[in-house]
Amino acid sequence: MVAPGLASSLWWSRMRVDFGKGFRRFFSRDGLGYLFIAPVVLYLATFLAYPVVYNFVLSFFKSSYGTITPVGLGNYYRLIVSRGFGQVMLNTVIWTAGNMTIMYALALIAAVILRTIPRGRVVFRVILLLPWVIPGIVAGILWRYMLHPHYGVVNDFLLKLGFIRSPVLWLADPHTSLASVMLAYIWKVYPYIMVLLMAGLEGIPNEIYEAASVDGATAWQQFRHVTLPLLGPVTRAIMIIMGVWTFNSFDLTYIMTKGGPLHSSEILGMRIYATAFVDFRFGLASALSVLAFVISFVFALLYTWSTRRQAGF
Fold it and tell me: Of the chain's two ends, which shows fewer C-beta atoms within 10 Å, N or C?
């Protein structure tokens, strides 16, 4: 038999050896990598993972003015039958699909034109990029005054050209309010898409266009069969990332119309804000946020699937 003191000493020596090996293994190259990313992981867990989980849990409770009552799936039923929910979802679809389609078309036209300009390209890039650097709040206030029915520059310009006979209530008319906010959003955001497309165009070798010209391809055929296919990866990234961004946008709608009149310009982001911070129905707002998260997550899955499919995984 081993004496108790000797056994304790052997155990302690073995623990020191194991601890030393583990310590050296941790501070090896792999271990240092985990140590360096630990602050980022802690930050994401604190400010991203925890709010998402808490919001999901809160969606099963009725929370208002400090009282919390479990309601199960009641919030999800209430948001479906709530007044104007169908209109809000339709507006969100029109807002996202319409903005992305028009912005991509304008950005692609501007990027192709800028690529053909031999001199002064940088100056034109800076001028066209100016709307993007303007804060959303400032852009919303600017367009609200430009679209004012009495002293707005838009009505004044259209009246002088004879396109309209009387001032148009752009933001107060249910038939034009959503389109007016979309116009402001397109003006502000499309320059960023233009820059991304210009980066994609710069990655297309000129030799391909030269070979197409030798084969007798016209400018339109080169654009259709060379430019568009080779911009495919950039286009997919733009459509998914900017689509999620547009889907969750809020600032311009809030500044210009606050979702009115009669829910005509209200989108999902505006409905979430109004439900939480105007009506103080935090449980219902959490359910709306979960719905927005699920839709955005589906977009992210589609982007990942298309990227992996293109890479052959």
Answer: N
